[in-house]
Amino acid sequence: MSTIFRSEEMTLCQLFLQPEAAYSCISELGELGIVQFRDLNPNVNAFQRKFVNEVRRCEEMGRKLRFLETEIKKDSLPIYDPEDNPEAPKPREMIDLEATFEKLDHELKEINTNADALKRNFSELTELKHNLSMTQLFFNDARPSDQDIMPTREMEIVTSGQPLKLGFITGVIPRERMLAFERMLWRVCRGNVFLKQAEIPEQVEDPITNEKVYKTVFVIFFQGEQLKNRVQKICEGFRANIYPCPENPQERRELAMGVMTRLEDLSVVLHQTQEHRQRVLAATSRNLRTWQIKVRKIKAIYHTMNMFNNDVARKCLIAECWAPVTELDRIQLALRKGT
Amino acid sequence: MKDDLFFNIDHGYLEGLCRGFKSGILKAPDYHNLVQCETLEDLRLHLHSTDYGSFLANEASPLTVNVIDDRLRDKLVQEFQHLRNASYEPLSTFLDYITYAYMIDNIVLLITGTLHQRAIGDLLPRCHPLGTFEQLGAITIADTPAQLYSAVLVDTPLAPYFIDCISEHDLDEMNVEIIRSTLYKAYLDDFFKFCKDLGGVTADVMCEILAFEADRRAFMITINSFDTGLTQDERAKLYPTCGHLHPDGLAELRRADSYEAVKEEYKLLFEGAGSSTGDKTIEDKFFEHEVKLNMNAFLRQFHFGIFYAYLKLKEQENRNIIWIAECIAQRHRSRIDNYIPIFP
């Protein structure tokens, strides 16, 4: 009769569980998935329940697993899905799992910090390399006009005969900030500085944010200490990375050579670090899903156990649940399996 | 009439979203539970069951109050930016006006930091995300307000407010506060005028809230300036004119020289506000009144005031949570109940 209404006859049961056996019984019932427990402690706060520490430990483990997952996704490694359904591990195994996660977490964090330092160094050197090559072009353009007494549009040299000594600052700034930067420079220095810029064709990884962005190399020529200070402050304010550039073309070439060799060395080390990281992550990715399922099952079991009433007098846990009448045998079987 | 019929076409989604956010604001039982927490971990666990959800889920285990503060602010900024990104005119201008207040705060923060010789790299992360603009980092180059205006602020929306502040004096501690008050006065008057021009329910609701804000600023400026070298006339220039006190009350405030003389207007608020530690301070009373006005904004429909009110209520809630978190972290629970309740 009940099948016409697409509903089942349900019964409210009370379970008396030994505290030691409670965990495995709930695990078995959870695998069946046919009972719904009632919350016997509705007035108790979340953080005053009996198994709150275990739930916290599960959340901590979940956090570490999420961190590992983001790291694996960053490297676009495949995560293997387990074919079978892992069972919830025993409470003793929880400690082992925690230790494993802690170790992996620690190791990965270490690799990450090392890799970050190396990458930052690498990006700085790349920017410096672009900087040097671009400024080479600027100075080449300016070179012929050095000897002329005719003022050219390149460098505003006064025609009093002696070319004035202009100081300069070179640096790299993200492309989107270039316009505001130029305008600010013009306003503050009242048009007394000369700016030349060239865009870096490929994307460069920013040393600070580790994102690939388009950048522009700029060189600013100015005269005098005051203007120099102002230009420096503006560069700091717009977070442009300033790189020292020697005036002498020979020194520039030497510096460029030095930078190239350092870049090569760094890329080798960086490559090795990346390989190590890949190995660790690959080993993790094989077990990640299994671990996640296990942690969720543990957390679910402890959440359910939080809903039970702890009867101190008879030293057992009392649980109330709704169950379909027709499934009562299966439930009894599961409970027997659990104890 | 026009409000009711045509408001939902452009702004209906956002109003619905905002009211949804507002219903997630913590209520009295939540605060009751929070006050009973023993550690910050308990706090995190309880907030997990509210609208905040897992916003602290990825933070490593020893939580600090600073981390909670940052995450709370990030969540609010994210919500506000979603509202701003999805808005049409004139709501988008309205929301921009709200951000100008944060810009003023950021500018003052940077100038004060520079005066104390702090590096720009330390100061920029401490700026409020809602008040950032492109030229923010370049504020440190200015030595005088005139330079600040001509170099940095002239391209920003704050340019018209700065006209009154331009002077050739050097930027020092005292001046920075005066600049802040002058900027804020110009901003408040401008915002008030904008709301009045919008008309309709928005004007009703917002003008009430902004008038209270103006009066509160006038009071705080007066009370805070008692021991400093600020003359009465200089003080009078800093009072916003869009409040209920204008012009007679402001004239009296100008002449006021002591705390008692200030109590004339707004008598009800001052009653019960003593300066001893047991009573609530006058600032707390102002906060309570502000919360009341903001809650009233939600009782009317089809206006922009709810966005402003939501932002302010959320900020008050964040202040409450941080207050409770500090009391827990420092184990000084005697005044843990001194938060401002939002839902009575």
UniProtKB/TrEMBL annotation, chain A:
MF-aspect GO terms: ATPase binding; proton-transporting ATPase activity, rotational mechanism
Alphabetic keyword roster: Coiled coil, Hydrogen ion transport, Ion transport, Membrane, Transmembrane, Transmembrane helix, Transport
Coiled-coil region(s): 94-128
Organism: Didymodactylos carnosus
GO cellular component, one term: proton-transporting V-type ATPase, V0 domain
Protein name from the UniProt record: V-type proton ATPase subunit a
Chief location: membrane
Highest taxon, organism lineage: Eukaryota
Protein task: Essential component of the vacuolar proton pump (V-ATPase), a multimeric enzyme that catalyzes the translocation of protons across the membranes. Required for assembly and activity of the V-ATPase.
UniProt GO BP: vacuolar acidification
Membrane topology: Multi-pass membrane protein
Location relative to the cell: Membrane
Family: Belongs to the V-ATPase 116 kDa subunit family.
Automatic annotation (TrEMBL), chain B:
Listed GO CC annotations: proton-transporting V-type ATPase, V0 domain
Domain of life assignment: Eukaryota
Gene Ontology molecular function: any one: proton-transporting ATPase activity, rotational mechanism
Keywords: Hydrogen ion transport, Ion transport, Transport
Key word Ion transport present: yes
Keyword field contains Transport: yes
Gene3D superfamilies: ATP synthase (C/AC39) subunit, domain 3 (1.10.132.50), V-type ATP synthase subunit C domain (1.20.1690.10)
Role this protein plays: Subunit of the V0 complex of vacuolar(H+)-ATPase (V-ATPase), a multisubunit enzyme composed of a peripheral complex (V1) that hydrolyzes ATP and a membrane integral complex (V0) that translocates protons. V-ATPase is responsible for acidifying and maintaining the pH of intracellular compartments and in some cell types, is targeted to the plasma membrane, where it is responsible for acidifying the extracellular environment. May play a role in coupling of proton transport and ATP hydrolysis. Regulator of osteoclast fusion and bone formation.
Complex and partners: V-ATPase is a heteromultimeric enzyme made up of two complexes: the ATP-hydrolytic V1 complex and the proton translocation V0 complex. The V1 complex consists of three catalytic AB heterodimers that form a heterohexamer, three peripheral stalks each consisting of EG heterodimers, one central rotor including subunits D and F, and the regulatory subunits C and H. The proton translocation complex V0 consists of the proton transport subunit a, a ring of proteolipid subunits c9c'', rotary subunit d, subunits e and f, and the accessory subunits ATP6AP1/Ac45 and ATP6AP2/PRR.
Similarity annotation: Belongs to the V-ATPase V0D/AC39 subunit family.
Name of the protein this chain belongs to: V-type proton ATPase subunit
